[in-house]
Every structure is written in structure tokens, then in C-alpha cells.
Write a structure and sequence with these properties.
This protein is of the alpha/beta class. The chain has one domain: 5'-nuclease (Rossmann fold, 3-Layer(aba) Sandwich), CATH 3.40.50. About 45% of the residues lie in helices and about 15% in strands. It contains six helices and five strands; from the N terminus they run E-H-H-E-H-H-E-H-H-E-E. It has helices at about 5-15, 20-30, 40-50, 60-65, 75-80, 90-105; strands spanning about 1-5, 35-40, 70, 105-110, 120-125. The chain has a five-stranded parallel sheet with strand order 3-2-1-4-5, sandwiched between helices.
């Protein structure tokens, strides 16, 4: 299974994995699964860090690599796919994650009730 971590799931993984459901935690830990972190997630984290809304590692790219997660760049195809999504969510980062999930055939790991309304595979965190 190919997973895409929602921003809150990545932050929980780094700081408090006990917040993640057993099923999602097992899927993330399963070495047969590939786990991706979107550039949109890093972008969202950095914006919120700059605003003083959250604390996260300054070397997020190295931390993601150390976790053996793979970076997922944002492509024009991903950006164009956003227009096909229903307006369940106004958050541009979450809409991008949903679009990436759809385009790449991933399973998004999230606890966001708005994100799971999109027509994409999801695993409840």
C-alpha cells in the first residue's frame, strides 16, 4: 500500500505516535508499505511555524528521510486535479493532499472528517 500522511499525522508520528490509530500506525510501520510526505505538508508546517502556531523540527527534510518516508513533489497535474474535487474543504493544503492522493493512487492517512469526504482512498488516523 502507498500511503500519504496528512500534516497532523506526520506531526503526531514525530511527537506523539500514540495519537495515531493502531491500524494507521501499523500501516505506517509496515515496511511493505511506502509512506509519502507531500511538499504541501512541509509548506504548511513552515508557514505555521513562522506564525508561531506550531513547533516542528528545523531540519524537517532530514527528519522525513530518517523516518524512511519519501518526499512527494507538487506537480502541475496535481494542481490541475484540484479543480475536479468537490468543495468539501477550503483549506488549500488539504485540497492538494486530496488531489495528490487521487492522481497518484495513494491512500491518505488522516483524521480530518472533511478530507475523508473526497473520493479517495483513506485510512483513519
Amino acid at each position: 500500500m502507498n500511503l500519504l500522511l496528512d500534516t497532523h499525522v506526520l506531526l503526531w508520528w514525530l511527537d506523539d505516535p500514540g495519537q495515531i490509530s493502531r491500524e494507521a500506525l501499523s500501516a505506517i510501520q509496515n515496511q511493505e508499505n511506502t509512506v509519502f510526505v507531500s511538499a504541501a505538508t512541509a509548506w504548511e508546517i513552515e508557514i505555521k511555524k513562522a506564525l508561531g502556531k506550531l513547533d516542528a523540527p528545523d531540519n524537517l527534510d532530514e527528519v522525513i528521510d530518517d523516518c524512511r518516508f519519501y518526499p512527494l513533489s507538487i506537480t502541475i497535474k496535481h494542481a490541475l486535479a484540484v479543480r475536479e474535487l468537490p468543495l468539501h474543504h477550503r483549506d488549500p493544503f488539504d485540497r492538494m493532499l486530496a488531489a495528490q492522493t487521487k492522481v497518484e493512487g495513494l491512500t491518505i492517512v488522516t483524521r480530518d472528517s472533511d478530507v475523508i469526504q473526497y473520493p479517495v482512498s483513506h485510512l483513519l488516523a
